[in-house]
């Protein structure tokens, strides 16, 4: 661990991971309350399209993730089918088509581009490879996401708990849902930079679900989810840095594995304690 804090990639990873953990915790609580975990998972998978396209176009992958995430999230809400069965079928068809196109773009990334490791970076994340210029951009997006939740906190909470009551009180339920799903798309894009598109839903859902097992107060749950996500992300960075000396030698284990494993173990432990208490 010599020189851990003196390493520029480590400092960048710690800063970017902190931003992602906080915004994921805040947004993830409402994702769980609204029962939109599957939508978060679909948006994470669809982010593969943006990431692979960004690598192929030789632009910052962050903006590929964010652009596709926001557009797809808005389209899912605007053109979503009202009945749950039809909505799930439509989401599955679109998801399959997007993943097929993503596979084609990743193939082009590896065969016609000079960028190496694009597939691993998109699917599983590569926080140590993040550029210092990406941190202010991620911080700005994260701050905008948290501020957005704060601004619409009351109507978002009411529409999440009882859409009919929210509509009766004059809350624009559809507009709130649209704005929130776009916010979820941006948040998933940020988590894709940490743990990749495949595992991004774990950082969005896991800490939030754990916090909601500890408290039913949304504000406290958001703070708890942010702390859980932050601890998991920073611990994952430390363990990944230390794994350079583990077999296979000088290869290192991915941050995404440690982050997801810590989140899962934490949720499992809280769930077991809650069942024992009941």
Q: Can you offer a commentary on this structure?
A:
The model has no long low-confidence stretch (mean pLDDT 80). Helix content is 81%, strand content 0%. It is globular and about 60 Å long. 43% of the residues are buried. The longest helix is centred in the last third of the chain and has 42 residues. The chain has a single domain, classed as ABC transporter involved in vitamin B12 uptake, BtuC. The chain starts with 7 loop residues before the first helix and ends with a helix.
Key structural traits:
ABC transporter involved in vitamin B12 uptake, BtuC, 278 residues, mainly alpha
* Percentage of residues assigned to helices: over 70%
CATH class: Mainly Alpha
The CATH architecture can be named as Orthogonal Bundle
Largest sheet, if any? none
By CATH, the topology is ABC transporter involved in vitamin B12 uptake, BtuC
Number of domains: 1
From the spread of the alpha carbons, the general shape counts as: globular
How many strand elements? 0
Number of helices: 11
- Give the low-confidence spans: none
End-to-end Cα distance: 42 Å
Strand content: under 5%
Average pLDDT across residues?
A: 80
Instruction: Specify the CATH homologous superfamily.
Output: ABC transporter involved in vitamin B12 uptake, BtuC
């Amino acid at each position: 661990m010599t020189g851990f804090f003196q390493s520029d990639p480590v400092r960048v990873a710690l800063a970017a991971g902190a931003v992602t953990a906080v915004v994921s915790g805040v947004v993830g609580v409402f994702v769980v309350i609204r029962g939109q975990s599957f939508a978060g998972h679909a948006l994470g998978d669809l982010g593969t399209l943006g990431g692979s396209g960004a690598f192929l176009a030789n632009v910052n992958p962050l903006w590929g993730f964010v652009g596709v995430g926001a557009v797809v999230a808005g389209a899912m809400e605007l053109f979503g089918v009202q009945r749950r069965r039809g909505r799930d079928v439509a989401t599955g068809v679109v998801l399959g088509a997007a993943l097929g196109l993503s596979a084609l773009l990743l193939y082009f990334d590896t065969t016609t581009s000079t960028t190496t490791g694009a597939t691993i970076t998109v699917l599983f994340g590569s926080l140590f490879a993040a550029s210092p210029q990406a941190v202010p951009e991620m911080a700005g997006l994260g701050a905008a996401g948290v501020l957005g939740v704060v601004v619409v906190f009351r109507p978002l909470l009411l529409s999440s708990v009882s859409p009919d009551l929210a509509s009766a009180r004059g809350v624009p339920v559809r507009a709130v849902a649209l704005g929130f799903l776009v916010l979820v798309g941006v948040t998933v894009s940020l988590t894709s930079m940490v743990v990749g598109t495949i595992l991004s839903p774990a950082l969005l859902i896991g800490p939030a679900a754990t916090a909601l097992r500890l408290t039913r107060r949304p504000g406290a749950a958001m703070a708890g989810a942010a702390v859980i996500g932050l601890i998991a992300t920073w611990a994952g960075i430390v363990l990944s840095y230390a794994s350079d000396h583990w077999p296979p030698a000088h290869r290192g284990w991915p941050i995404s594995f440690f982050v997801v494993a810590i989140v899962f173990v934490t949720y499992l432990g809280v769930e077991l304690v809650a069942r024992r208490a009941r």
